[in-house]
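User: quick one, fold this
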Amino acid sequence: PVPAPAAGQVRVKVQYAAVNPIDWKLMSGGLDGVCPCSFPYTPGFDISGVVDAVGDDVSDLAAGDAVVADLGLVETCCNPPPAAGCGGAFAEFAVLPAGLCAKRGGMAADAAAGLPLAGLTTYQALFTGEGSSFAGERLGDLKAGQKLLILGGSSATGAFAVQLAKNARATVAATASENLMPDGTTKKIDFVKSLGADQVIDYKSADWAEVLAGQEYDLIFDTVGLDEDLAKANKVLKKGGDFVSIANFNPESKSTDEVRFAVFLIKSTGAELSKLVQLADEGKLQVPVDSTVAFEDVPAALEKNMSFRSGGKIVVKVSA
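Assistant:
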């Protein structure tokens, strides 16, 4: 049966969804202690679609509104789970709190699906917003004139980070490789440069910690999760600088006198997502899309994402 929205909720007819690494990481059970995933579980968190029903006490959205949303990792993978279950994007309809939605503005429905989870994750990593670390502390606090290093610049979160940091008038360095993007001609290094990065380091031929040694960066945004990256961050960061990770969940990874370490999971919020949609509408933020696949090809899309072969978001067409 098609679920009905409760008070404060909306039901969205999903047009497009997007694949994220967390979709397949949840399947391993390895994150059960942080975000328990129980049945019913419908994979996926990113949706782009049209509101087709609203519950009581919803005043800012109406049937027919085109919206995007991150259904929420910690918001749905919890104990007890919400009535609609964990996740929910890879389905014809999704029921979620109205406060998680943002109106889509002028964004295309397919590209918009790739914005919510990765975009919000990046925004909170760089500026904190409504996010916080597992320790309840702030995340990044990037300001104009400061310097940011992105580990994994050609990933979706890395690509968003380059753009958001340049919009904030920060200096940006990033790591990438000479591997090709999905178009088969553009090198990942060149793609990251095209987004506005001031310096891109080929991590396969150079050590970023040596290239940038002593340059006193304010923030490192880690999308890769290697323990050795945290260990050598003090060579690049100013004393007390921030190392914010979305991938290093090693319990031994901690702050020191030289480096402040923070790891976190996104807090879903429609208010911050609306800011990102506005930037996209203004042409200041583009969503890197690897490919758009049919709904029946979701297993293959998850496998491709798991192999880290995608160059941007894999978008899933759910309905017309």
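User: anything notable?
Assistant: The longest strand covers residues 9-18.
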